[in-house]
Amino acid sequence: MACDRRTLLLAGALALVSTATPALAQEAKTQDAKTPIAVIGGGNIGGTIGGLWVKAGHPVMFASRHPEDLKPLVEKLGPLAKAGTVEQAFAFGDAVLIAVPYKAYPELGKTYGAALKGKVVLDAGNATKARDGELAAEAESAGIGATSAKYLPGARLVRAFNAANYRLFAQNAHRSGAPMAVPIAGDDKQALSVASTLVRDAGFEPVVVGGLDAAKKFQMGSPGFQRDATGPEARKAFGIAE
């Protein structure tokens, strides 16, 4: 009788372990599921958004032609932040944030096209006439989503983090109350899902405005640019059904 009781207790304990172990494993996997991110450009927008991802637990490599210049930034952000060349960053990141002057896009795409192919790329660039000349005129005419796609072929492109000044992002990340909306646009549904997660991790609410063509609704100079809005306010402004 005692033997039977011990057998039953042992069987029950094993059953508990067998049911708990997958749950614990899944929980550990979820906690460890942080996306390595390449940030191309360590200026105001790259440093701000990349820094928010580091604080959220993502390993981030900031890249420029002179990675030694990024040493103060990565030292300030801690061990999850690294500096490297553009080539090293593309190899490092499962997702990429492009945060360089727009005039660099044609050369970036030409030089690193193979590395960009198939990558989820968050495109934060804006084109200005004073700095980018004819490229700005092209973006204005064709729409910035189409223009970025032209110069970054093969990338799974999502327009994101371009609709506001970096100061607004720095001030409003993880704010109390309703989070600040970040409009995004892209043609690849899975890339939009990855981008949405990264927008949330940075402390904002993603608002999918539409495909890449819809990016013109929040490009520089449009009514959707430089808006400090909540998710519901942004969806109403962009005519998106709740």
Q: What strand order characterises the main sheet?
A: 3-2-1-4-5-6-7-8
Global shape: globular
Taken as a percent bin, the fraction of beta residues is 5-15%
SSE pattern: HEHEHEHEHEHHHEHEHEH
Number of helices: 11
Distance between termini? 63 Å
Structural class: alpha/beta
Mean pLDDT: 87
Tally of strands: 8
**Helix residue percentage:** 40-55%
Show unreliable segments. 6-31
**What is Rg?**
22 Å
Q: What's the main sheet like?
A: 8 strands, mixed
List keywords for this structure.
oxidoreductase; 242 residues; oxidoreductase activity; alpha/beta; signal; 49% helix; 8 strands
How is this structure best described in words?
By secondary structure, the chain is of the alpha/beta class. The chain contains eleven helices and eight strands. It has helices at 2-32, 44-55, 71-77, 86-92, 105-116, 129-132, 134-142, 144-151, 166-172, 189-201, 231-238, and strands spanning 37-40, 60-63, 81-84, 95-98, 120-123, 156-159, 181-186, 205-210. An eight-stranded mixed beta sheet has the order 3-2-1-4-5-6-7-8, sandwiched between helices. Residues 6-31 have low confidence and may be disordered. Residues 37-126 form the Pyrroline-5-carboxylate reductase catalytic N-terminal domain. This is NADP oxidoreductase. InterPro entries: NAD(P)-bd_dom_sf, P5C_Rdtase_cat_N, STEAP_metalloreductase. Keywords: Oxidoreductase, Signal.
